[in-house]
Amino acid sequence: MHAKKMRLIRSIKEIRKLTATLKQRGKRIGFVPTMGYLHAGHLSLARRSKQECDVTVMSIFVNPLQFGPKEDFKKYPRDLKKDLKTAKEAGVDYILFPTDKQMYPQGYLTEVCVDKITKTLCGAARPGHFKGVTTVVAKLFNIVGPDIGYFGQKDAQQAVVIKRMVRDLNMPLKIKVLPIVRESGGLAMSSRNRYLERQERQDALILYRALQKARDMVKRGERNSRRIIVEMRKLIKKVDSAKIDYIRIVDAKDLSEKKKISGRALIALAVFIGKVRLIDNLILKV
Q1: 222: buried, middle or exposed (CB in 10 Å: 19+, 13-18, 0-12)?
Q2: For every residue of the chain, which 3-state class applies, written as one string?
Q3: Are residues 166 and 195 in the same domain?
Q4: 278: containing domain
Q5: Residue pair 57/94 in contact by the 8 Å Cβ criterion
Q6: Is 42 a catalytic residue?
Q7: CB of 31 within 8 A of CB of 59?
Q8: 85 and 226 co-located in one domain
Q9: Are residues 170 and 211 in the same domain?
C-alpha cells in the first residue's frame, strides 16, 4: 500500500463534506477524539481504528468547557507540530483541528448532560467537567459522523458516560474502549504526567501498586470493598507527596457503589502527587 498523505483540516464545514462523501462511498470511519499532546495511549486507539476502519479521523481540541475555574486549561500542554508527526506515523488520515470559536461561536447555548453517573468519582470533585466532555463529544460525533469512536480505559468514567450518551440519544455509532497503556513502571500514560518532577514520577507509581494490591486481595478471596480500600489507603499514605482524592469500588457498567465485589467491578482512584491530579483504575471480573 502506498503511504497516503495525512491532512490537517481546520474547518468544520470541510470535514463534514469530506466524511459525508466517504460514507457515500461506503467507507467505514473510525474516530479518535483527543486534546492533543499525544502519547502511546492515544496512538493505540489510532492504530486500532486503522485496523478496523477504512478511514481514521482524529480530532485535536483542548475543550475549554471541561476545565473547572481553577484547572489547568491555559497551561494544558499543546504541541501541534509534534502531534501531527506522531499521528501521521500511527496512520491517521485526517486531523480535525477546530478553533474554540468554531466549536463554540458567540451566543452558543447548548449543553449535553448525562445525569447521575456523572455525579460520582471524578464528577464529584470536578463539577461540570463531564457536561463539558459530553457536549464536545456529541458535537464531534455530529461533525465527523463516525461508525466507531475509540476511547481509552484510563478515563473509565468518561467511557461509561459516553457509552450512555450514545445509547440514550440513539447516536448511530459504536463505542470501543481500549486497555490502559502504561509506562514501564506501571504509571498510566497521561498528558499530565509531564507536570511531574523526577521524584514525583517515582511516587506516582503508588497508584498502580495500590491497584495491584487490590487485585491480589481479590485473588486471595477478599470480597469486602471497604477492607480493600483501607489497605489501598494505607499503602498510598506511605508516600509523602501523595494526597488521596478518592478510592472507590463500583459496578463497571453503571458506576453504582459495590460493597461486595462481584461481577465486573471497577476499582478507581484519583490521587494528587504534589500538585498533579492523577487517575487510574482496574476492572476485575469475579
Answers
A1: middle
A2: CCCCCCEEECCHHHHHHHHHHHHHCCCCEEEEEECCCCCHHHHHHHHHHHHHCCEEEEEECCCHHHCCCCCCCCCCCCCHHHHHHHHHHCCCCEEECCCHHHHCCCCCCCCCCCCCCCCCHHHHHCCCHHHHHHHHHHHHHHHHCCCEEEEECCCHHHHHHHHHHHHHCCCCCEEEEECCCECCCCCECCHHHHHCCHHHHHHCHHHHHHHHHHHHHHHCCCCEHHHHHHHHHHHHHCCCCEEEEEEEEEECCCCCECCECCCEEEEEEEEEECCEEEEEEEEEEC
A3: no
A4: 191-285
A5: yes
A6: yes
A7: yes
A8: no
A9: no
Could you tell me which of 94, 66, 279 has the C-alpha nearest to residue 191?
Answer: 279
Ordered mean pLDDT values, 10 residues apiece, the chain (286 residues): 80 98 98 98 98 98 95 92 97 98 98 97 95 98 98 98 98 98 96 96 98 98 98 98 98 96 97 97 96
Please check whether residues 248 and 275 belong to one and the same domain: yes
Q: Do 68 and 168 sit in the same domain of this protein?
A: yes
Q: What is the pLDDT of residue 3?
A: 55
- Residue 188 CA to its chain's centroid (Å): 11
Task: Report the CATH number at residue 129.
Answer: 3.40.50.620
Residues 21 and 137 grouped into a single domain: yes
How far is it, in rounded angstroms, from Cα 258 to Cα 285? 13
Cell of 132: 463539558
Name the grid cell of 176: 470501543
Instruction: Please tell me the distance from the alpha carbon of residue 65 to that of residue 185, in angstroms, as a whole number.
Output: 33
Report the number of distinct structural domains present in the chain. 2
Residue 1 lies in a domain: no
Give domain status of residue 141, yes or no: yes
CB 87 within 8 A of CB 6: yes
